[in-house]
Amino acid sequence: MEDHEHAELDWDPLDDTKIWPEDKFPLRHIGVMTLNRNVADHHNESEQIAMGTGVLVDGLDFSDDKMLVGRTFSYSDTQRYRVGPNYLQLPVNQAKSAAVHTNQRGGQMSSGVDLASGQNPHINFEPSIHNGLHESRRPAPNNPPVITGRLTQAVLERRNDYVQARGRYSTIMEWERDDLVKNLGDLLGQCERDVQERMVWHLLLVHDDYGTRVGKALGITAEDVKRLAPLKGQVLTDADKARLEKLGANGDKIDPSAWGKWTSSVPDYQASAEEVLGAMRASISEAINA
């Protein structure tokens, strides 16, 4: 998506609760990630893995997504606290096809010093005139967006919180809808009545079928919740307000073709326990024989 306001959209493209429909913004193929086995050692291969949005390869940059900016600042600190200051030396976090040279020294779990060729081993700060590491030369500055204005805390102006959820509900498979309704019915069944009613109200704003089925599991109808007013600070579109007038009777249909192609709704099926366990056994056997 080009980096501008996109006033033609009725939702903010940097809203983390929204997805970008592929019929309007086609995916760009940048590579393939192949998962060819399950982990053989949970602690070393999974528990100690340390992802971080601040670790980028050249050519990529950050968007103005507020969630991404916050995570970029915090994740690396989190990994140093959670795993240790030398977390990048662990095999699961090491760069696989590049030489890494940092000014990191000592600390828990240190397994070596990643000195560059000819680097002074006694210098671990930058800049230094005594043959220490230095920042790599970079091309001319990129062209980041120019932002002016006051920094404020406010709700997003363009929210449209229910239409994408309606699309999601309409494009998943029938067995997924059954599981979703059952799970929500079971979990909301443990909540107070006012919470149950509010959630059925939300789900009816999403889709007649969604709210009606979950409400049936809880013994709550559209008639029981239509008296509820929107929450304080909630942003409703004109379409949302119209739906409130006919809550539970908006004539919603489950028609995947009406929503185009959505990344989050892909063909899948319910795997049996035998299939899942069989794949795990095969993976373990391959790891042992490797």
Structural overview:
By secondary structure, the protein is mostly helical. The protein has helices spanning 42-47, 66-82, 163-171, 174-188, 193-206, 208-218, 222-225, 238-245, 273-289. Helix 4 (174-188) crosses helix 6. The protein starts with 41 loop residues before the first helix and ends with a helix.
Q: What is the helix content?
A: 25-40%
Low-confidence stretches: none
Structural class estimated from helices and strands: mainly alpha
Number of helices: 9
Q: What radius of gyration results from the CA coordinates? A: 26 Å
Count of individual beta strands: 0
Task: State the shape.
Answer: extended
User: What are the secondary-structure elements, in order, as H or E?
Assistant: HHHHHHHHH
> Mean pLDDT score, rounded?
86
Q: Span from first to last CA?
A: 43 Å
The main β sheet shows up as: none
Strand content: under 5%
Give me the secondary-structure topology.
Layout: H1 42-47, H2 66-82, H3 163-171, H4 174-188, H5 193-206, H6 208-218, H7 222-225, H8 238-245, H9 273-289
Helix pairs in contact: 4-6, 5-6
List keywords for this structure.
290 residues, mainly alpha, 9 helices, 35% helix, extended
Task: Sum this structure up briefly.
Helices cover 35% and strands 0% of the residues. It has 290 residues and is an all-alpha fold.
